[in-house]
Amino acid sequence: MIDFDTYITAPIYYRVVRRCGTQWHFVKGETFYNPLNLPKPSLDSLFATFGTSLRSCAAKLLSINGGEEGFYLVDIMNKRYYYCGKSIQDIKSKLLELGIGRPDPHI
Protein backbone atom coordinates (compact mmCIF):
# COMPACT_ATOMS: atom_id res chain seq x y z
CA MET A 1 0.00 0.00 0.00
CA ILE A 2 1.18 3.53 -0.78
CA ASP A 3 1.93 5.94 2.07
CA PHE A 4 -0.74 8.55 1.28
CA ASP A 5 0.43 10.83 4.09
CA THR A 6 3.47 11.82 2.03
CA TYR A 7 1.32 12.95 -0.88
CA ILE A 8 -1.65 14.82 0.56
CA THR A 9 -1.58 18.00 2.66
CA ALA A 10 -4.91 19.35 3.92
CA PRO A 11 -6.44 20.97 7.00
CA ILE A 12 -6.95 18.63 9.96
CA TYR A 13 -10.73 18.59 9.47
CA TYR A 14 -10.38 17.07 5.98
CA ARG A 15 -9.83 13.32 6.07
CA VAL A 16 -8.99 11.05 3.17
CA VAL A 17 -10.84 7.74 3.13
CA ARG A 18 -10.12 4.79 0.85
CA ARG A 19 -12.75 2.19 -0.02
CA CYS A 20 -11.31 -1.26 -0.81
CA GLY A 21 -13.85 -4.01 -1.32
CA THR A 22 -16.18 -3.72 1.65
CA GLN A 23 -13.70 -1.93 3.93
CA TRP A 24 -13.31 1.78 4.69
CA HIS A 25 -9.73 2.88 5.47
CA PHE A 26 -9.47 6.28 7.15
CA VAL A 27 -6.01 7.76 6.44
CA LYS A 28 -4.50 9.09 9.66
CA GLY A 29 -2.30 11.83 8.19
CA GLU A 30 0.58 13.67 9.77
CA THR A 31 0.76 17.08 11.43
CA PHE A 32 3.22 19.39 9.72
CA TYR A 33 2.66 22.49 11.90
CA ASN A 34 1.96 22.32 15.63
CA PRO A 35 3.24 25.53 17.29
CA LEU A 36 1.68 24.68 20.67
CA ASN A 37 3.11 21.15 20.64
CA LEU A 38 -0.35 19.65 21.26
CA PRO A 39 -0.60 15.86 21.32
CA LYS A 40 -1.84 14.21 18.14
CA PRO A 41 -5.46 13.08 18.64
CA SER A 42 -6.63 9.61 17.68
CA LEU A 43 -9.01 9.45 14.72
CA ASP A 44 -11.89 8.65 17.07
CA SER A 45 -11.09 11.70 19.21
CA LEU A 46 -10.67 13.93 16.18
CA PHE A 47 -14.05 12.94 14.75
CA ALA A 48 -15.69 13.30 18.19
CA THR A 49 -14.25 16.82 18.49
CA PHE A 50 -16.31 17.75 15.42
CA GLY A 51 -19.43 15.98 16.70
CA THR A 52 -19.34 12.89 14.50
CA SER A 53 -17.83 9.40 14.35
CA LEU A 54 -15.97 7.17 11.92
CA ARG A 55 -19.04 4.92 11.65
CA SER A 56 -21.37 7.83 10.89
CA CYS A 57 -19.03 9.18 8.20
CA ALA A 58 -18.66 5.74 6.61
CA ALA A 59 -22.47 5.50 6.38
CA LYS A 60 -22.65 8.92 4.70
CA LEU A 61 -19.88 7.98 2.25
CA LEU A 62 -21.69 4.77 1.37
CA SER A 63 -24.79 6.77 0.50
CA ILE A 64 -23.12 9.33 -1.79
CA ASN A 65 -21.62 6.91 -4.28
CA GLY A 66 -23.03 3.51 -3.49
CA GLY A 67 -19.78 2.46 -1.86
CA GLU A 68 -17.79 2.39 -5.09
CA GLU A 69 -14.11 1.62 -4.57
CA GLY A 70 -11.75 4.55 -4.63
CA PHE A 71 -10.91 7.64 -2.62
CA TYR A 72 -13.29 9.85 -0.71
CA LEU A 73 -12.83 13.10 1.17
CA VAL A 74 -14.64 13.98 4.40
CA ASP A 75 -14.93 17.55 5.69
CA ILE A 76 -15.73 16.63 9.29
CA MET A 77 -16.06 20.26 10.39
CA ASN A 78 -18.80 21.14 7.88
CA LYS A 79 -20.21 17.59 7.47
CA ARG A 80 -19.53 17.43 3.72
CA TYR A 81 -18.62 14.26 1.85
CA TYR A 82 -17.01 13.90 -1.59
CA TYR A 83 -16.09 11.07 -3.94
CA CYS A 84 -12.69 11.85 -5.48
CA GLY A 85 -11.91 8.96 -7.83
CA LYS A 86 -9.52 6.03 -8.07
CA SER A 87 -6.10 7.70 -7.82
CA ILE A 88 -4.17 9.97 -5.50
CA GLN A 89 -4.23 12.65 -8.19
CA ASP A 90 -8.04 12.62 -7.99
CA ILE A 91 -7.77 13.56 -4.29
CA LYS A 92 -5.47 16.45 -5.12
CA SER A 93 -7.83 17.60 -7.88
CA LYS A 94 -10.80 17.57 -5.50
CA LEU A 95 -8.86 19.56 -2.89
CA LEU A 96 -7.91 22.13 -5.55
CA GLU A 97 -11.56 22.30 -6.63
CA LEU A 98 -12.43 23.07 -2.99
CA GLY A 99 -9.81 25.86 -2.87
CA ILE A 100 -7.23 23.92 -0.87
CA GLY A 101 -3.64 23.87 -2.09
CA ARG A 102 -2.24 24.90 -5.45
CA PRO A 103 -1.30 23.06 -8.64
CA ASP A 104 2.45 23.36 -8.04
CA PRO A 105 3.20 23.67 -4.31
CA HIS A 106 6.89 24.39 -4.94
CA ILE A 107 6.23 27.80 -6.49
Key traits:
107 residues; alpha+beta; four-stranded antiparallel sheet; 4 strands
Task: Characterize this entry briefly.
The protein has 107 residues and is of the alpha+beta class.
Task: Walk me through the structure.
This protein has 107 residues and is α+β, with helices and mostly antiparallel strands. It has a domain at 20-86. It contains three helices and four strands, in the order ββααββα. The chain has helices at residues 43-49, 54-65, 88-97; strands spanning 14-20, 23-26, 70-75, 80-85. Strands 2-1-3-4 form a four-stranded antiparallel beta sheet, sandwiched between helices. A hairpin with a 2-residue loop joins strand 1 and strand 2. The protein is globular. The protein starts with 13 loop residues before the first strand and ends in a 10-residue tail after the last helix.
